[in-house]
Amino acid sequence: xRATLLLVLPLLLIASAGEVAAADAARPNILLIxxxxxxxxxxxxxxxxxxxxxxxxxxxxxxxxxxxxYTPVPLCRPSLACIATGLYPHQHGVTGNDxxxxxxxxxxxxxxxxxxxxxxxxxxxxFTEHPNLIRDLTSRGYVSFQTGKWWEGDPVKSAGFSHAMTxxxxxxxxxxxxxxxxxxxxxxxxxxxxxxxxxxxxxxxYAPMLPHTPHTPPADLLQKYLKLAPSEAIARYWACVEWFDxxxxxxxxxxxxxxxxxxTIILFTIDNGWIQHPTKASDFGDRSKLTPYEGGxxxxxxxxxxxxxxxxxxxxxxxxxxxxxPTLAALLKTPVPNGLPGxxxxxxxxxxxxxxxxxxxxxxNIADVDRPARSLETRWMIDGWWKVIVPNIAKRPDxxxxxxxxxxxxxxxxxxxxxxxxxxxxxxxxLDAWWQPSGN
Length: 440
Description:
- By secondary structure, the chain is an alpha/beta fold.
- The protein has 14 helices and 14 strands.
- It has helices at residues 2-26, 54-61, 76-85, 89-92, 117-128, 133-139, 155-159, 188-197, 219-226, 232-257, 294-297, 324-332, 348-353, 421-434; strands at residues 29-35, 64-70, 98-99, 143-148, 163-164, 202-207, 264-270, 301-304, 312-320, 356-362, 365-366, 376-383, 386-391, 402-405.
- The strands form 3 sheets. An 8-stranded mixed β-sheet has the order 5-4-6-1-7-8-2-9, sandwiched between helices.
- β4, α7 and β5 form a beta-alpha-beta unit.
């Protein structure tokens, strides 16, 4: 009997290996595209009259698109952490881009300085305390590649990527290092990763510093938009938007040419909004990035998987980037950690029954790495088409809540808090039931 088992066992192992390879080949790849500092309406498919985005327009036509998508926070580092963890900033603890440092030290230029290492490490530590979608997928046999923006130290150590462009621990490597070359200097690293993945399912994190500053687009695009835009500053930004679109087209075209597009889930979002300043190059205007207004937090969200996700433009229902992990997990039929606040955006019933979404806005710098919510400026909530913005009284004791009717006033020009006072109080109670900061 023992001899028979010894003879059969190798055959079983060989069969299992073959089954695993077949299963790997059948599992979908994942391409996560994250635009950097782009206005929610700055796409052809969102109705912009001048900016040309033919490649993302084509992707939108093949996707489930939420026009009313949002990031919970209008700043890139905490926004990216929301995407990865599926949590809000007050939950994952990454609330700003840089920690405040003692002695008046420049926090943007001191990463890698041993004197201040504990401040930076504490913020990364908050991120690593939580599960994230990258580590989850690599634990399930995916190979994964980080490119572009990345703040949380070494992407392999902090998030579980199997491959990364960013080192994350070198002096001056603040938010991506070598990874920031992607897109602006071509896409070869991603192409090489996809080739090397072979039959393994893969995840690619494509977060190029585009259309982010510096607004240094190719000359032909700049000349095109100088003829269309009201100023050179705006022309440079518009040209960078189309430049970003071109890189997306090249990447998706590579998947199509290599026969992988039909078996790839593509997710698209923006890390935070941007309204280009009309005259100041590489600067943003009011109610844009770093603010809780639509220009800072709204983003279209796209989910594309040919043959599996029905293309549709949803202009009514609310979506958030905290929904991306639950949505991806539902498509892959994998579990998510208990307590994630997001929903599966491909579940029409869950989307239709959602009444409201939430967000928070902080200072650019983290005032206290041990109590990151101390930097809170405002909380906000959208309930149907009504949006309330509530200041943190600990920091702004004289400020009042603001109320906007987004259906009739999408750019929040008219504050209706006084006129609609009876509507404000119930909304404040719902916001407090979601999260009420204390001790900050």
